[in-house]
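Dear support,

We are seeing what looks like truncated structure output for some complexes. This example has two components. We would appreciate it if you could run it in full and send us the complete token output so we can diff it against ours.
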Amino acid sequence: MNPKKHQDIHLADIQLTAVRGIPEVRPGDDLGWLIAQATETQGFALADGDVVVVAQKIVSKAEGRLVNLESVTPSALAVEIAAKQHRDPRLVEVVLGESASIIRMDDHVLVTETKHGFICANAGVDRSNVAGKDWVALLPVAPDDSALLLKTRLAELFKVNVAVIITDTFGRPWREGLTNVAIGVAGMKPLKDFRGERDDHGKELSATVLAVADEIAASTGLLMRKASRIPVVVVRGFYFEHSDGSAKELVRAKERDLFR
Amino acid sequence: MNPKKHQDIHLADIQLTAVRGIPEVRPGDDLGWLIAQATETQGFALADGDVVVVAQKIVSKAEGRLVNLESVTPSALAVEIAAKQHRDPRLVEVVLGESASIIRMDDHVLVTETKHGFICANAGVDRSNVAGKDWVALLPVAPDDSALLLKTRLAELFKVNVAVIITDTFGRPWREGLTNVAIGVAGMKPLKDFRGERDDHGKELSATVLAVADEIAASTGLLMRKASRIPVVVVRGFYFEHSDGSAKELVRAKERDLFR
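Here is the complete output from our reference environment:
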């Protein structure tokens, strides 16, 4: 290795670049185009092999996945849960509408399985970073499709072959704090399977399937601060095989899950 | 912003650099010194504000947290569990010895709470990347202390103020695949609390405590491949307040946890 050359931070193995200056996203907006405009202003161009990581919120906005609570009539169940949790029954109604099942509930928390199969608080329904007091954002209907659409659009605009990951911040059992995870994937496998490979001592590696899409999502969570408008981060230097892939591969089947 | 300047990848917001060439670590080794040697060869120097992320395995090895299964006599409980799971009863005995409680168990998986309070498979006891057929590595006794010791040593050797995170790969409920998480922290808070701050629309952010130490750990998991000898990754460009901190802050108290 050439030490001089390595001093150039060009050679940092993985580089995360925040895409700044994306405007407030509105229903119908072309996210690929907004990313192209923002990166051009920044003097940054996407390259083959980049992973373009996009916060769910702007995808939901572009797709019009917004609900005005004034239009919502809560069910009896929503009213009951809301009373117990001191929350807006209309919001609880929206959460239930996005859910396939309730996983856990107490006086504070409503953890459900979304229709996509993700398990998270409030089915991913969220008031923050949405304009208008009574408006909330829902998760995209089909985040893998959203990711693929964006991948295709970026290929047109930049003439590049990238992977796209759509992320949201989820809590998790046992550990405090939220982390950014992948809810939509296109262009790569979200899991990397090391089973059958051997370690440096020739021992076979067991049980080593790494959730690389979640690790990529988490890395970009370090830049997608909640209140600073950075909804897109480009990850460069992570080598992946170009491939179909779906965030559904990250969802553990119920019958394999000891914690439902 | 100067587009020309931004094209220099110097300006990637966060840079992850793998520290290569760390030799096989033995009990008593000075990890700080090994990192200093390896980074010097690489032509890379630590800087103030870097987060130095170290895989648990080399910390355990340096601290002599290695057990030869030939020295272990399994208890009746270990024999019973091992028979059910078709595993080595001596390994199960070591796992139970490292555990404060059993969280879940079936024919394949033994999820326990470690004496530190972490919940993971096999109490973090692991055969991979340990020399010798019957040797296994345990988690460090006090990973926060290990992190602080290394932080102090790096300050001596490099004259820098860094944070240190010690990581291991844990599974999680509901989602497939392992991710790298923080089990020891020094020099920073592992959680970043955004509560009370406002979003771009002036709405107060709620329930937004981010597990940044776990997100940093996850990012380095992209480079710490299981079988390629990269046990140390330097994260540059993540701004944190220098502070005391402990990975115990990442452990949800049992009474606040709906999933035990």
